[in-house]
Structure formats: C-alpha cells, structure tokens
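User: Hi! I'm working on a homework problem where we have to compare a predicted structure to a textbook description. Could you give me the structure for the chain below?
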Amino acid sequence: MNKGSIDTSVSLRMGQVTAWDNGFYTGGSIEGVSTKFLIDSGSTASLISFKVYETFDSSTRPELNELQLTVNDVNGSALTVYGYADMNIKLGDTNYLHTIIVCDMKPQGIIGQDFLMKHIKKIDYEKVIMTTADDQIQCWTGGETCNVCRIIVSNTVKVPANSSSWVNVNIPNAEHMSETVYMHPKSNQHNQVHVLDSLYSLAGTNTDINIINSEDQDVTINSNTTIGVCESLSCQTDNMTRCAQVSCETTDTLQEVPDYLVDLLKRSSAHLDPSESKKLEQLLIKYRHVFAKSDDDLGVTNIVRHHINTQGATPIKQPFRRLPLGKREVEREEIKKMLAGVSLNQASVHGALLLS
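Assistant: Happy to help. Predicted structure tokens:
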C-alpha cells in the first residue's frame, strides 16, 4: 500500500471530535471494520479514532506515518495524533483508498472535506442520501440523543376519502433510533394525506402506521413515497418530592405587632392620625420577618453592596492585634450570643469571620 500524504503547507481544521454531535452520519467500514462516520464538511481532513484503529487485523494493519503538524479541534484544543496512512474505506458498495488521520476522538470516524470534494457528487439532505459517481449512500441525521429518519410507504396503497388507514412503511436506519419515536408530517408537506402526530414504538417487527386522508376523494400513495419523519425521543425522569404538610403564618393569624416592633410602631406613629397608624401597624405585621428581633439577630442580604472608595490608595498590611486578657472573656460571651440564633452552616461562617 502506498503511503498517504498530508499537505503540511496548510493548517488542519477539525470539526466536532470531542462528542457525538447532532449531525449527518452514514455507516460503512474501514479496513474491514464496521464504522459509523460523521459527515463533516467543516473538517479539513478525514479521521478515525485510535480505538477503531486498534481493532484492525494486526497482520494487515496499515503502518502510520508521523504527522508533522499540530491538529486542533473546532474549539482550538490540540488533539492527540498517532499518525496517518492510506486506508480502504467502504461506503455503500464501493471501496475507496483514502488518506486517514488517526487520533483520539469520540466519534468512530469523520468523513472530511478532502473526501467529500474528491468522491461525493451530491448530498440530498431532504432524502438523507449521499451520492457518489457509482452509488447512493443512505445516511441519517442525529447524534447520541437526536435522530431523524424518513417514513417511506412500502407498497402502493389507496386511502379512502375522509378516512384513515393503516399502512406498512419502511424507516431507513431505524436501528439508530430510540425505541420510542415521535412521528409527524414533513415541515413542507401541504397535501391533505399525511401521517398523524403520534408516539410510536419500534420494538416490534411490524411497522404499520396510521395515515389520514382529509380530502373529499380517494388518494393513491405510491410506493417509496416519503409521507413523514420520525424523531428519537430521550426520556428524563425528574426526582419528585411529596409535600406532607404546609404551615403558613399570615396576617389573619397574627393580629398584633410583635414585641420587638412595638417600640418602632410607637415612635413612628407620633405624627400619624389613627387610620395611618393602623396602616403602619398592618405593614409591620406583614413584613415583620425583615426586621432584626434583637442586636444578636444576624442577617444577610445581597440586595445592597457596600463600596469603600480608597481613591487609589496602596493597600497596606498590619499585624494582628490581640485583645487584652481582661477583655477576652467578654469577647467569647458576645460571640456565643451571636451564634446562638444562627444555623450550623451560618455559625461556621460567622465564627470563622469573627475569630480571624
């Protein structure tokens, strides 16, 4: 086998190599090993993962040539590259000898711009088919969580007017779909004969779906007609918690101003008439939780931030100054009072600040 060649005068740009992207895929083989290829026109070169390369028959495995370039992915991160070689790729019924770079990446293989420009004549994204000079290669769209496939009528069928019928269909690349799929008409489908929006299980061997004809006359659907698309579904189960009891304290159950707000109400009502004083009383009852109950009732807020303007002064460092022995007992008692009314997590924070 001839040694492959890489143009070292240009930089190599790779596409999505770190994860399975929701893109355009096809099945094939490389050196006889079954491989799923991502069709990526954004990748300058074609690649396979080192894991696939390791599965080649050791007696016929192509010897890798050293690559004198740094290869980066689409995010600019350098890839671990093991080398390159000419390898036999089979897509459809045709074999191709093409230069392939071996590197660490999650996709099994990537068909890059170099292969597409040399061998691919046309890509039909609506029919999900890639055309070469000798072949039509079936593809699929999707990734790890999202696959989209066509729904094709298997045999010619007549659907009576204003009714629905069960029709046998073919779903190319259904093996790449999730077990449960969402079926719906094509986005550009405007006729009155279409598949119903529905969830469908691909677990069975029989693929019959219900289609509807809302026309006033019978409609014949020819075989190999695309009547809709189906999409993979991924299920997400949220953790559910049950509320056993709800306890609410409202102004209906608390009619009097709390003790710690009585003095504030008295001082604030000095220049108010009775109706205004009553409104203030109701306001204090409603928002009593925002007032400190005592000097030790510590709180925290992120609504207001305090800024100290140092006017560009250079920061200084001063030595820690310990309290005189006579005041340390008073300090401990004050700390105990402040920590008595806070939770364990708050205590660890406040304690650390006060003792530092």
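For your comparison, note the following. Residues 323 and 331 are 9 Å apart (CA to CA). Residues 347-356 have pLDDT under 50 and may be disordered. Good luck with the assignment!
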